[in-house]
Amino acid sequence: MWKQTRRNLGGNNIPKILIVDDEPDLREMLHLMFHKEGFETEEAEDGADFLDKVDGFQPDLVILDIMMPGLTTREILQKLRRKKSNPKIILLTVVRYSNEEKEKVFKMGNIVDYIKKPFELDDFMDAVKKQVQRNL
Q1: Which one, of 83, 94, 88, lies nearest residue 62 by Cα?
Q2: Radius of gyration (Cα) for the chain, nearest Å?
Q3: I need a labelling partner for 39 at 20 to 30 A (CA). Which of 70, 126, 131, 135 fits?
Q4: Average pLDDT, rounded, for the chain
Q5: 73 contacts: CB under 8 Å, gap ≥ 6
Q6: Helix (H, G, I), strand (E, B) or coil at 20
Q7: What is the third-level CATH fold of 16-135?
């Protein structure tokens, strides 16, 4: 699907996704899945690495794990506001939040979705494609 879109747009609008997770196996799996779909990807192993890469890569979408060593999600999102890049963010978490807690999380930044680990790959890809299509 994205390969056809890329041709239709003259190669100028390849969706870019930045994967931020401290689990190398998950980053690699998502990287392979996204490349199969025709997306361009970059990987970051933690919040500081993400903040170093976000402006240079200019992602359309960020997949951000909530529970990583180093910077908290709140700190990452606060620092992101000072950057020129303002990508959509899908949060990944192993923690189950109440509806009230989810509302607070969605107000912290440009959060567009919240996915609980472990997730079904098809459901995850549907959520990603939905957000990427909104950028085209």
Answers
A1: 88
A2: 14
A3: 70
A4: 87
A5: 47, 64, 66, 91, 105, 108
A6: strand
A7: Rossmann fold (3.40.50)
